[in-house]
Amino acid sequence: MAVVEIEIRANVAVIQVDNPPVNAISSQIRSGLVEAIEQIEDNNAVDRAILICRGRTFMAGADVREFSQQPQPPHLPEVTAAIEASHKPVTAVIHGQSLGGGLEIALACHYRIALAGSRLGLPEVKLGLLPGAGGTQRLPRLLGAEAALSMIVSGDPVSAEKALESGLIDGLCQLSTENPLADLFEYALDFAQHLDLSETSHRRLSLRSATAPNAGLYDQWRERYTKRQRGVDAPQACIDAIEAATSLPFDQGIARERELFLSLRGSDQSQALQHLFFAERRALRNTGVGTAQARPINCVAIIGAGTMGTGIAMSFANAGIPVTLLEIDPQALARGMDRIASQYAATVKRGKCSQDEAEQRRELIQGTTDYAQLARIDLVIEAVFEKLEVKQQVFEQLDRHCKPDAILATNTSYLDINQIAAVTSRPQQVLGLHFFSPANIMKLVEVIKADRTSDVAMSSVLQQLKRLGKVSVTAGVCHGFIGNRMYQSYQREVGLLMLEGAKPSQIDNALYQFGMAMGPLAVADLSGLDIGYLMRRSLDESKYEQRAFLIHDRLVESDRKGRKSGAGFYRYDASSTANQDDPEVLELIKTIATEQGVEQRSIDTEEIVQRCMLALINEAGHILDEGIAASAADIDLVYCHGYGFPKHRGGPMQLASCWGLAQVEKQIDELARTQGPRWWNASKSLRDAAQKNSW
Ligand code: 3HC
Ligand code: NAI
């Protein structure tokens, strides 16, 4: 069938769209819809139409892949204008998702009905865009400015049930039989047959006026989003466009929307966000595990009920999967179970789930201190102390007590998973699952394939993580895998910058302004400086730049371990404010610089950001050279989902593309010249990328 077809049912024209998998609105669909409207206008046998989609969903938006190509007419605003201008009322019949341009088409229709359970939204802002086909002008005319702000600026979809309540849709088809799509079709024909044709022109949203909201509403939203999404353009442009809807006639509002849309469409921010959208989907497909059949995972066990173990347990329970939580002693177990209970209580308090749901989830987590309880478990995730011997002892126990086909995973941050697998009789079933803290909130998981891990084990956990709603990135074994290995290079540069004269607050502010969720020294204080200290003690000294961590080490040795001890790079007492330099630390930095013969100088924000980013990019290049990560896009996912890297910059590798890969190569070569080649040796991947101008 063509992507758009018309079937005549008595006096009703049925316009059907078919563009799998999500009916993205391609240029063919746009021209097909305009032609369909023209045909219906000319056909005297029909006096009304329904617009319905085949497959799993209504139209999920403009075809994003076309944004990088020369735009082909008709443009989407022309399509929505043509639909709305039709003299015969068109009813949008929604199932699955009606998103972005898909909802804008529905808003241009004269009526909208939906199948129960569908979702409607304008998520363009999440791709660094705004609804560019009349959505910012029609929605405020239908629901008012405040409701439009809430949907368009957040980008979050609403349920069909909520849409009926608000007036976004005019009818809801309940799920009653085993064939809901057939029911929806019958419901739609019946709905269309009962329309009062004399109302058609009144149903055109462009003819309605949008009421101006209370003074100050737009400024409140601007302020909120300046804080919530620092430096991100799209939310602000969405607010501007909605303000135009309530202050200008429709045609002028549409012109303003178009102007704002075009300014965002080619922007670096939008490209970065689109890059992440496709990277997430590619990561799900390109796992490097071929077609290995996944085994079902119906129950899991977590070893260690500390910070990570409790968070991981909650991630599984939240997806309805029973968890056995094993601790070394009953007191530690009780503390862990209490932590879980209080986290669920906080979730209820924040309105994220009901008391009953929280209770059900909590009951799915059962504590034990007895390995015999693990005999039937499908997947075990160890999250005990970061010490090889301790983990090896745990894995020996697991190997003894778990069924032969159970998968055994470790949440280690740095340790060699091959050495952990080696103590078991089933190294093919041992792998790394590196969750991020807090594990029940953070979406990223690095899935580490050790030398002997089987594809079946990988495929089984990847499928399971998808069920949990996680973003999985596969990685190979090395010290720190993808994320922590790069983070160490970033911290190295931070340490060297301090020795060379940058103050801690200056570094933190520079990187915070760049868009990082927190400055690196505030992060170090929060996680505890002793963790890195202990990790470095277990490392061969040739593996890291010792000079760069002298300040960190000296702080730990004087009992400044970060927030938990009341002081680290900053002080955390009543008299100090956030990110305020402590004279004692500045003095310590000076002393170490003198000891090391480093002459201090004034360093500007640009140099701080550039060196820290180049350190990440160069290490990432080596990670690609070694095959630890499968692609540059995977590395970006790790940084944006696990390390607070600003999503509107798309990750370090996308940033390098945006800066110009040849330019980045040149800057790294210059740093190799001035700082020495030990840590600034450009990777082969970067050299190749600079040649072909893409990763
Ligand atoms: N354009 C192009 N391809 C799209 C797409 C889009 N808008 N939406 C989804 N796809 C592709 C995905 O890349 C994926 O491709 P793959 O199979 O080759 O990897 C495939 O469709 C299936 O997508 P998902 O794996 O994401 O399927 P799910 O069922 O998990 O989710 C969805 C479906 C909720 C529709 C989700 O894909 C989604 O959120 N899509 C984006 C929606 C969106 O942002 N729409 C706005 C677009 S911008 C716009 O409309 C501008 C207008 O205002 C002018
Ligand atoms: P934690 O110290 O909070 O918890 C560890 C728990 O393991 C404690 O409750 C302890 O009683 C228990 N335990 C110790 N030995 C045990 C044994 N033999 N059997 C059963 N339980 C035992 O540590 P945290 O922070 O949860 O870290 C756990 C692991 O996760 C480490 O490998 C760490 O490197 C890794 N990790 C930590 C992250 C973090 O941000 N905290 C992030 C990602 C990984």
Automatic annotation (TrEMBL):
Its main location: other. Residues 300-475 form the 3-hydroxyacyl-CoA dehydrogenase NAD binding domain. Pathway: Lipid metabolism; fatty acid beta-oxidation. Keywords: Fatty acid metabolism, Isomerase, Lipid degradation, Lipid metabolism, Lyase, Multifunctional enzyme, NAD, Oxidoreductase, Peroxisome. It catalyses: a (3S)-3-hydroxyacyl-CoA + NAD(+) = a 3-oxoacyl-CoA + NADH + H(+). It is found in: Peroxisome. GO terms for molecular function: (3S)-3-hydroxyacyl-CoA dehydrogenase (NAD+) activity; enoyl-CoA hydratase activity; isomerase activity; NAD+ binding. InterPro entries: 3-OHacyl-CoA_DH_NAD-bd (IPR006176), 3HC_DH_C (IPR006108), 6-PGluconate_DH-like_C_sf (IPR008927), ClpP/crotonase-like_dom_sf (IPR029045), Enoyl-CoA_hydra/iso (IPR001753), NAD(P)-bd_dom_sf (IPR036291). One of its GO terms (biological process) is fatty acid beta-oxidation. Residues 480-572, 608-691 form the 3-hydroxyacyl-CoA dehydrogenase C-terminal domain. This is 3-hydroxyacyl-CoA dehydrogenase.
